[in-house]
Amino acid sequence: MTASSLFLASLLSLAAASPAFQNFVLQESLNSAPSGFSTSGPAADSTTLNLRIALASSNFAGLEQALYDVSTPSSANYGKHLSKAEVNAFLAPTSDAVSAVQAWLTSYGLTATSASSAGDWLSVTVPVSTANEMLAAKYETFVHTSTGKSYARTLSLVPPRRGVSTYTFNSSPATTFNNPLASGPVLSSPKPASNVSTDASSSCASKVTPACLQSLYGIPTTPATQTSNTIAVAGFIDQYANAADLKTFLKSFRTDMSSATTFTLQTLDGGSNPQSGSEAGDEANLDIQYTVGLATGVPVYFVSVGDQYQDGDLGGFLDIVNFLSDEDDVPNVMTTSYGENETDLSKSLAFKLCEAYAAFGARGTSILFASGDGGVEGGQDQSCKTYQAAFPAGCPYLTAVGSVTGVSPETASSFSSGGFSNYWGTADYQSDAVAAFLTAQGTTNKGLFNASGRGYPDVSAQGENVQIVVDGQTGGVDGTSCSSPIFASVIGLINDQLIAAGNSPLGFLNPWLYANPDMLNDVTSGSNPGCGAKGFTARSGWDPVTGLGTPNYPAMLAAAGL
């Protein structure tokens, strides 16, 4: 029995014997810290924790139904996206939940503030000594070996049974150990490039540029006209988008556009966007250059999330959704090129964040995430014996984007993360597509993955040797983080046409995508090996390497009714 198991056994014995612990119930626990973390002993009693408490929403089932209702083309309510007030009514906890949790906090002399407009997240600052008492926890200082960063975490979460545990999903920080490397850009280092052609007929088989993508996918160069139509680019971990590099990029690759075309900055959690060339980020520049430079004329916002996270273990992922969802006019598209492994988050915390994506989608935002670069090893490479899942790619309320390379035909990138979630089941909108894949695959890879899980990615796009400019230098980069902004730009341009015609933007994409698979270019070759096995193979129809396929702008526009 491990030391943590002994602690847990002692705790449960104490719970049965001592009046102070009679009403506690085990909610989550770990036998030990994840690989790569080691403990340096108990956290100091005076260490301050900014505790986030997640309350169960009063009617998430209703929100999920409403999301599908406004996102399914055959529905009479298709495109009738919800208002902020309507979404918050679904998300809001019951008054009994709020009263019970506030009474529990008051008994420790604490007062929580609402950390979301719906009131389903509360925030309270407590010393470790109090957190240990109120959660029957044992906060320790854990060190991430490769970076030296330290964190106060506990291996068990035990809120009071009476009232509180009934209403809470999770507290954060607690049992989730975010790998500080896993939230980085899923992107390779820039590779030198020379003699880059800007000719529209140049082949994506050698170097990917806006011109070759326009030619390959039928993406128009005609500027968008609707100023209300916007794309939000999420920025994390001190990745900064450089305006001078964007200008150089446009001069090199979009000579038909004004090189003065730029983006609008939004910040939260102490975020910023310094403009010195040495601080230009590969990821941030990539995301901005392939939204501004491909979604011609669509207003682009770079949302820089700083390091002063208000969402504990979630690293700003919840903060940015709450920040944008609280706006009266939400962006029509949000693309994010960051992720981690599903197992890096506790199941309850992952579920609560996934709920926030459902709420954001119900407002009318198309949420796209890079699927990850670990093949079947999840969001990042890791040592594994069975196939892992990436997060947030496995959340069913967003669109995960995988990667392809080459032309005639396009082929799956070997690093393109795809597979099946261990947290969420197969979504209804994809059940037929996933069943067809599993039938075609037969017994291959049997036992290595969760065959009843939500399958991802949903779609894919070019993701190798994509040309960007960083600190004045042009080079090629690889990764599904290339693919997400490319697909997001296609959606942004379709939204422009929809709004111009007096229609609603697409919103949550997946029901529309799976209802119209023929509007995408099916990719039937390539695989994503990992975990010492062959991985999945791209094949006709949906597959967990390239999803339904890559963009075909004219066909997608037609499927949107234009």
Automatic annotation (TrEMBL):
Cofactor: Ca(2+)
Binding-site residues for Ca(2+), renumbered to this chain: 522-523, 541, 543
SMART domains referenced in this protein's UniProt entry, alphabetically: Pro-kuma_activ
Short name of any one Pfam family annotated for the protein: Pro-kuma_activ
Domain Peptidase S53 residue range list: 207-562
UniProt-listed GO biological process terms: proteolysis
Active site annotation, chain numbering: 283, 287, 481
Keyword Ubl conjugation tagged: no
Signal peptide (residue range): 1-17
Keywords: Calcium, Hydrolase, Metal-binding, Protease, Serine protease, Signal, Zymogen
Cellular component terms per the entry's GO annotation: extracellular region
Taxonomy, superkingdom: Eukaryota
Subcellular location: Secreted, Extracellular space
Keyword Nucleus: no
Cofactor note: Binds 1 Ca(2+) ion per subunit.
A GO molecular-function annotation: serine-type endopeptidase activity
Catalytic activity: Release of an N-terminal tripeptide from a polypeptide
UniProt cross-references to CDD domains, sorted A to Z: Peptidases_S53 (cd04056), Pro-peptidase_S53 (cd11377)
E.C. code: 3.4.14.10
InterPro entries, sorted: Peptidase_S8/S53_dom, Peptidase_S8/S53_dom_sf, S53_propep, Sedolisin_dom, Tripeptidyl-peptidase_I
Role summary: Secreted tripeptidyl-peptidase which degrades proteins at acidic pHs and is involved in virulence.
Name used for this protein in its record: tripeptidyl-peptidase II
